[in-house]
């Protein structure tokens, strides 16, 4: 016969078991939470005072949001505004039509007037243009912010509501002539392959020492450093180094992003999945700036 004290001890042990297990699970969860907090990287948004219009406003800005709604356009299309500070003018595109306007600014007060566009029919996406034009008509102030290395412009109404949010075109460093230094880690600088990017006109021109190659640059304004090379057309001459040219064309067609690796070098790369299932950068082409 089991003693009464033994039964009581067993009952206490059974009741205590789930409590202990829960305590261990809770402790593990707290530990996981702490790890997550440590690994999280928080990039703060900073307000940037406007002190120099030429340095801070001049240039191309991609339209990201209109009245807090993200701009969605077909692939290859984008809405942007180019502020010509010296001329007091704005040039750009609504995603459907070219746009021209005048503006005046004093401090952070800005007025956009005389807006005109071309008259192409954008179908369903014409709504983006209509929303943008209505918003520009109500713009009263401008503000600049920065998140990491990315600069944003906010055009607001008199109530300080954000009407249009734009991101500075961050691929200006890709403009101009480059020497193709490496293709898939193979040094080809001695082949004298030149590449000229025109980010504003969205074109690329390549002289391979054998053929002349022309193509189109596509930029995704919603992605950082995104650049693609498409419709690459060669003059199709057969030369001794045609294999190098072919490798370059394949690498350019695979390119998804670019990165400034130094003051004089840029790296083109794509994304791939490694053996552990992680998405990593795959370098494709290294370009070296050509001094003019």
Q: Can you describe what's shown?
A:
The chain has 2 domains: 47-168, Lipocalin, CATH 2.40.128; 172-289, Lipocalin, CATH 2.40.128.270. Helix content is 22%, strand content 42%. It is built from 4 helices and 19 strands. It has helices spanning 4-39, 53-56, 126-137, 242-254, and strands spanning 45-48, 59-66, 69-70, 79-84, 89-94, 98-106, 109-117, 141-147, 150-156, 162-168, 176-183, 186-187, 194-198, 203-207, 212-218, 228-234, 257-260, 265-273, 279-289. Strands 1, 2, 3, 4, 5, 6, 7, 8, 9 and 10 form a 10-stranded antiparallel beta sheet that branches. The termini are far apart. Mean pLDDT is 85; it is low at 1-39.
Class of secondary structure makeup: alpha+beta
Number of beta-strand segments: 19
For the record, the CATH class of the largest domain is Mainly Beta
Q: Which ranges are low-confidence, i.e. pLDDT below 50, for 5 or more consecutive residues?
A: 1-39
Order of helices and strands: HEHEEEEEEHEEEEEEEEEHEEE
- Radius of gyration of CA atoms, rounded to a whole number: 28 Å
Number of domains: 2
| Count of discrete alpha- or pi-helical segments spanning 4 or more residues | 4
N-end to C-end Cα span = 101 Å
CATH architecture type of the largest domain: Beta Barrel
Which percent bin holds the helix content? Answer: 10-25%
Q: What is the CATH topology of the largest domain? A: Lipocalin
The backbone outline, from C-alpha atoms, is elongated
What does the largest sheet look like? 10 strands, antiparallel
Strand content: 35-45%
**Rounded mean pLDDT score:** 85
